Amino acid sequence: MTGYEKHKDDILRRLRRIEGQVRGLQRMVEQDTYCIDVLTQVSATNAALQSCALALLDEHLSCCVTEAIGHGGDRAREKVTEASRAIARLVRS
């Protein structure tokens, strides 16, 4: 089971919206849109991706990590380490 299973439709909706934003960026470049306008849309797309990533992280922490901690042992430590690494990747991006 994935941590986002209950909110899968919402996550897919977000990703499809982001996909549309990226296609819009491609059109903007094809149409020689002013660079600052393209950069503004790139920023909006990045924000949408970050928001989606945070939603997925929240689901992972509240489901997968919480469940593993409930069972304890090595699996719990692995899940916490995995989550910490994912957070570090998000912070760096």
UniProtKB/TrEMBL annotation:
Protein name in the entry: DNA-binding transcriptional regulator, FrmR family
Entry GO terms, CC: cytoplasm; protein-DNA complex
Keyword Nuclease: no
Native organism: Streptomyces pini
GO molecular function per UniProt: DNA-binding transcription repressor activity; metal ion binding; transcription cis-regulatory region binding
Family annotation (Pfam families): Trns_repr_metal (PF02583)
Family in the record: Belongs to the CsoR family.
InterPro entries for this protein: Metal_Tscrpt_repr, Metal_Tscrpt_repr_sf
Main location group: cytoplasm
Localization per Swiss-Prot or TrEMBL: Cytoplasm
Keywords attached to this entry: Copper, Cytoplasm, DNA-binding, Metal-binding, Repressor, Transcription, Transcription regulation
Lineage of the organism: Bacteria, Bacillati, Actinomycetota, Actinomycetes, Kitasatosporales
